[in-house]
Write a structure and sequence with these properties.
CATH class: Mainly Beta
CATH topology: Porin
Strand content: over 45%
Strand order of the largest sheet: 1-2-3-5-6-7-8-9-10-11-12-13-14-15-16-17
Order of helices and strands: HHEEEEEEHEEEEEEEEEEE
Number of helices: 3
Distance between the termini: 31 Å
Number of domains: 1
Shape: globular
């Protein structure tokens, strides 16, 4: 049975109301509060995923409009975990309306429903997620169980980490916005985790990561890339960081065909101008050796916290994956607001206009979306 557009929106609104009563994904905008490394708040050296105890406290003190100390804890403090166990979970949902010269559509998508845990034994951590993935776009309850990431993390000391397992490769600004051109057009959107072996150095002012990428040997149906990826960054000040990323990958194609090889390189900048005003920017150059194409992608976000917990932002993006083809050029302009009313809840409303030469007749795409993220 199909669910109508109105019913989807009504269900989403009801779900948000029930959950109301911050998020466990990376929030690089915290550079404005002098957090240049991610391990202050996250278990993962590259950010995102499970929060540390300090990260939960910071979600209350720095991000949320209101809340209590107990409210910021795991499961609102209803469960007391032993010192060797850290746990969390995420529910993310999207309602969007898409308007082009040829198409008008709206859809509700259950983006994520995961549990995540860390078991700590001295300097070793075992981290993994288990969740349900929406199997069919038009059937929100049809799911299959997946583990988006699972890895072993060894703390050599406070600055050095070794990690082995399934997770996202280190590259550029680690953001939860997978629809950005610098993520989606480079093939690094949601579900692009691979098996890697990674070393991280998180010092001050220098930090960096390098990873050997082994692709997805667990699933022959996925023609994932293997190769290496790395970043190096320098903290220009307590509220700014300038970095450079490099990726080289080789992707298996059909039997008898050449492997697809590519390289992606480029700088990125995280800049906290004040405690409320920030800029994020990334530029990437891609060279595909097999296809003999060169392309460029850019992303710039400017944001301002009007009052604690309420942000307004604007994003400008450009993607041209093939300089020889003018039809590959596209731009996107987004304005939005992000609201953190209380710990465990993040609401994002945005409007985007895309201009693409390949889109007829007027070359314009409009997208209105609302994302809610709740975490345990």
């Amino acid at each position: 049975m199909k669910i109508s557009k109105l019913s989807r929106f009504a269900f989403l609104s009801l779900a948000f109301t029930l959950l109301l009563p911050q998020r466990a994904f990376c929030f690089p905008e915290m550079i404005r509060h002098s957090y240049v490394n991610c391990t202050a708040c996250h278990v993962s050296p590259s950010g995102g995923g499970l929060l540390t105890e300090y990260g939960r406290a910071l979600s209350l003190e720095a991000l949320s409009m209101n809340g209590t100390e107990k409210e910021s804890k795991f499961a609102y403090g209803l469960l007391e975990l032993p010192t060797w166990l850290n746990a969390g979970g995420d529910i993310r949902a999207l309602q969007y309306d898409h308007n082009t010269p040829r198409v008008r559509e709206g859809q509700f998508i259950r983006m994520q429903a995961d549990l995540e845990a860390e078991v700590k034994v001295n300097k070793l951590s075992v981290v993994g997620t288990l969740g349900a993935d929406q199997k069919y776009p038009d059937r929100i309850w049809a799911s299959e169980f997946i583990s988006r990431r699972h890895y072993l993390l060894y703390h050599l000391n406070e600055e050095n980490y070794v990690r082995v397992g399934k997770f996202k490769r280190p590259y550029g600004i680690n953001t939860d916005n997978h629809s950005l051109y610098v993520r989606k057009d480079l093939g690094w959107n949601a579900g692009s985790e691979t098996y890697n072996a990674e070393y991280s150095f998180l010092g001050d002012p220098w930090n960096g990561q390098i990873a050997m990428i082994f692709g997805r040997p667990d699933d022959d149906s996925i023609h994932s890339e293997s190769g290496f990826s790395g970043t190096v960054a320098y903290a220009l000040s307590p509220k700014s960081k300038l970095g450079f990323s490099n990726f080289y990958g080789r992707q298996s194609t059909q039997p008898g065909q050449k492997n697809d090889k590519r390289e992606v390189v480029g700088p990125y900048l995280l800049l906290g101008i004040t405690d409320k005003f920030y800029v994020l920017s990334e530029l990437d150059y891609q060279r595909r050796y097999t296809a003999n194409t060169n392309g460029l992608l850019t992303y710039t976000q400017v944001g301002y916290e009007i009052i604690k917990g309420l942000h307004f932002y604007g994003i400008q993006e450009l993607s041209r994956l093939d300089f020889a083809q003018s039809q590959s050029l596209k731009n996107a302009y987004t304005v939005g607001t992000r609201f953190f009313p209380r710990p465990h809840l993040d609401l994002n409303l945005a409007y985007q206009i895309q201009t693409r030469k390949a889109l007829a007749p007027d070359g314009q795409d409009q997208l209105l979306y609302f994302i809610a993220h709740f975490y345990l």
